[in-house]
Amino acid sequence: GSDGDGSAVLVAVLVEPGRTDVTRELLGAAARLAHGVTASSAAGHVRTGHTRTGHVRTGHVVAVVAEPPALELLAASGADEVLVLSGASSASVDLVEQDVAAGFSQWAVEHSPRLVLAPATCWGREVASRSAVRLAAGLVGDALEVELVDGQLCGTKPACGSSQLATVSVRSTVQIATVRPGVMIAPAPREVVHEVPVSTLSLAPRRRVTITSRWCDDDLEALVRAPVVVGVGAAVSPDHYDEVRLLATLLGGELGATRRVTDNGWLPRSRQIGITGRSIAPRLYVALGTSGKPNHLIGVRRAGTVLAVNADPTAPVFAGCDVGIVGDWHDVVGALAEQLSR
Fold first, then answer.
1. Same domain, yes or no: 169 and 104
2. How far does the chain reach from its first CA to its final CA, in angstroms?
3. What is residue 161's predicted lDDT score, i.e. its pLDDT?
């Protein structure tokens, strides 16, 4: 593709190891943005987010990986080329965030990508911010949506205590955004008609950080993948979580929570939904015993349907849901579970 002056337009995606779902989301968004960059003069702007668009584009998407690449997945998700940072194919070399940022920045200086997308995770935020400093690039952090307006990357993110959304634009030569996992719909896999070229960049890890072990207290992608999420607030005692889990299981879903719940240690942080937690897009979100503060509800703004259950008819959650039930959550969950079990 070209950007009007005949030069190829590159959109790079920083791929976090082990995060398949968000990788598919970012590559799909990158493919749409790559098309939008080269067509911006004619089409005005291209938005990525809840609307799924086709795969036809004239730009070029490069997946930057720090682990042995799953080429078929990357290509089917939107990558036209794969850059492997050296050491990723060797179990004895573990590249940390500063290494990935240094390697990507070295490549970017030579190849001049227009847009760079990274996941808004601990890994993605560090790699993107380090890269932004090295490249003197503008960065939109924690975006809920990204779009192109007149060739400039714009990201929509919460503002004013999460009560409003603000659009932030980037005007630097290289434009970077970190995007929250789960806020964009991953496109259906495209047909791969040719082999994706792979290049390798050799790095000398700085070894400031030594990873001695890795562990995780939960499946980080559980809420992103779930078609149904049942969210519990502080009004639901952890003594009754088995009842709520039964409902979630009957619905084929997962258990989520508000910040107060995770602050109390009742559920892992990975289950927290909202401005300081996860943004999700299930078909159905069931809110149990939550007041409905904007900080929480902004995390389910992409949900297909929101069902709220609260004993207080004046609870703010009823202003942000599609279906509301005024009643004790325990009675409602029991009745729903009984009906679903039949």
1. yes
2. 56
3. 62
Both 14 and 161 in a single domain? yes
Tell me if 206 is assigned to some domain: no
**Cα–Cα distance measured from residue 233 to residue 263, given in angstroms and rounded to the nearest whole number:** 11
User: pTM for the whole thing?
Assistant: 0.73
Per residue in 271-322, pLDDT tens?
A: 999 988 888 889 999 999 999 998 899 889 889 999 999 999 999 999 999 9
Domain at 259, CATH number = 3.40.50.1220
**What are the CA-CA distances from residue 100 to residues 65, 73, 201 (Å)?**
9, 21, 11
For residue 92, pLDDT over 60 is answered with: no
* Residues 6 or more apart whose Cβ sits within 8 Å of residue 203: 85, 86, 87, 95, 99, 102, 103
Which pLDDT belongs to residue 244? 96
What b/e string do you get for 216-248 counting C-beta neighbours within 10 Å, with b at 16 or more? eeeebbbbbebebbbbbbbbbeeeebebbebbb
Amino acid identity, position 15: V
Amino acid at 38: T
What whole-number distance in Å separates Cα of residue 12 and Cα of residue 20? Answer: 16
Residue 146 pLDDT more than 70?
yes
Residue 15 covered by a domain = yes
Question: In the chain, how many domains are there?
Answer: 2
Considering the domain boundaries, does residue 173 fall inside one? Answer: yes
Q: 21: domain range?
A: 10-201
